[in-house]
Amino acid sequence: MAANAPRSNFIRQIIDQDLANGKHQMVHTRFPPEPNGFLHIGHAKSIVLNFGIAQDYHGTCNLRFDDTNPLKEKVDYVNSIQADVKWLGYSWEGKPRYSSDYFDRLHGYAVELIEKGLAYCDFSSQETMRELRGTLKEPGKNSPYRDTAIEENLKIFADMTAGKYQEGEVCLRAKIDMSSPFMCMRDPVIYRVRFAHHHQTGDKWCVYPMYDFTHCISDAIEGITHSLCTLEFQDNRRLYDWVLDNISIDCHPQQIEFSRLNLQYTVMSKRKLHLLVEEGKVSGWDDPRMPTIAGMRRRGYTPASVREFCHRIGVTKMDNQVEMSMLEACIRDELNQDAPRAMAVLDPVRLVIENYPEEHEQQLNAPNHPNNEAMGTRQVPFAREILIEREDFREEANKKYKRLVLGKEVRLRNAYVIKAERVDKDAEGNITAIYCTYDPETLGTDPADGRKVKGVIHWVAAAHAVPCEFRLYDRLFQVPNPGAEEDFFSTLNPASLQIKHGFVEPSLAKAAPEKAYQFERIGYFCADSQDSHEGNLVFNQTVGLRDTWSDSEAAA
């Protein structure tokens, strides 16, 4: 199957049937984020599903902010959500919508329920309401305010709206069934008093509708045909339908639930992501270790790789945990094909080629991709002194070690064959310089005498090496399911970020933020969008060349 190709699933089968039997003439979906934080990879699954279905069925998809809780919402979150959706490659129908656009109509529908005897104002404390709600095994009990007269309820609700009650003093509840086996149907709160400035409506309102009351009505107002949500809202579908069945509105969207994305070694709870940011466990919502779309983008993930991941995991009703390696495979597969190659040295040691002329320099031609000539070539300076990775040299090694060994030969990438002759060490025994000789006849060709040189190492010319910071990332948590831990902070990985200071070849001196490179023999990196600029390069590791994490897990 081609990358990003849609796969059949139970939702598409429902839509196919609805179109075939004439229930709908066109598909209309929506992506309804709450603007109370940055979007994460779980939201990406919903974005790809909702916008993807609209595209594939030549329908439309709305972006609607479910902004019913102004205490936790910010315009910054609104802006970041729009940027993330666009970055993933999607556009919404018309202007962004807000549930607050419908506050007048929502208030009217609440009044309608009161007039029908299907809603009442309750002065019970939260503790009392909790006690009366019952348990999963025991039915709830009616509130003493449940049978308040309709006229009195209308007056109280009008006074709530006018700001005559304090927060928590009174709320509006739907009158459904306190003995229902579904907790969400035991007279849920649908309006509460809240004196808070709203980012869209200002100070117009001091009563705000609850999410479950707002969401279904907003869907109906917008003419949504298929309201797709995750499985935790499965029971709430009964409340979704009850509200629409009991107000004077024509459209009745169909709610369909699918499994949410649970990604190993991270958390998908927005509350816990908030805690990570607020407690300074990460540098912010766009920290490259975070599962947020902004963090993944800063780390070097591409829109295509995220979309492909969402297609690979599919859409089902079965809850499961997806391995992080599956996400990493998507970006690795893409960058292996598309990322230009470059050379970087993260832990440098000086190497001197003693028989190379001291004042001489060469500009060597290096391919930007070994398997794609269309990507062209670049010039790489070569001189007597170069820098190599410290781990690429040993004084002694067995035959399995294919790098530079004292008295043995190795090839420098896109350059010559060299042989290590001797080393300098400091007082602690650390190698400070490696002295080599080179074979001048081996540029781009094997040794003339037929000897075989198996190893290849990368390098940068010392005089032209550009200093930079490398940020190496590991799993943010040490356990596969940190969200299940009572103290999930205790499972944070102390080695999730390692910083090294090394050098890159001069072609990267002006590396554009978020542009991907394969640092040969190391991994895929991109310049950091926040901290990197010419004269102060910072590269984020996107992913390694191969899945060493799964290898180590298998070994364990």
Please provide a written account of the structure:
Helix 2 packs across helix 11, helix 7 (211-222) crosses helix 8 and helix 11 crosses helix 12 (324-338). This protein folds into three domains: 23-258, 3-Layer(aba) Sandwich (Rossmann fold); 270-340 and 468-555, Ribosomal Protein L25, Chain P, CATH 2.40.240.10; 347-458, Ribosomal Protein L25, Chain P, CATH 2.40.240.10. The two termini are 34 Å apart. It contains 13 helices and 29 strands. The radius of gyration is 31 Å and the shape is elongated. The longest helix is centred in the first third of the chain and has 16 residues, at 41-56. By secondary structure, it is α/β, with parallel strands linked by helices. Strands 12-27-28-29-25-26-13 form a seven-stranded mixed sheet, with helices on one face. 26% of the residues lie in helices and 24% in strands.
What are the defining features of this structure?
about 550 residues, alpha/beta, Rossmann fold, Ribosomal Protein L25, Chain P, seven-stranded mixed β-sheet, 29 strands, about 25% strand, elongated
Report the average pLDDT across residues. 96
Give Rg in angstroms.
Answer: 31 Å
- What is the assigned CATH homologous superfamily of the largest domain? HUPs
Oligomer: single chain
Strand content: 15-25%
Structural class: alpha/beta
Give the total of beta strands. 29
Terminal CA distance reads 34 Å
Task: Please list the strands of the largest sheet in the order they lie side by side.
Answer: 12-27-28-29-25-26-13
Q: Briefly note the CATH topology name of the largest domain.
A: Rossmann fold
How many domains, as an integer? 3
CATH class of the largest domain, anyone?
Answer: Alpha Beta
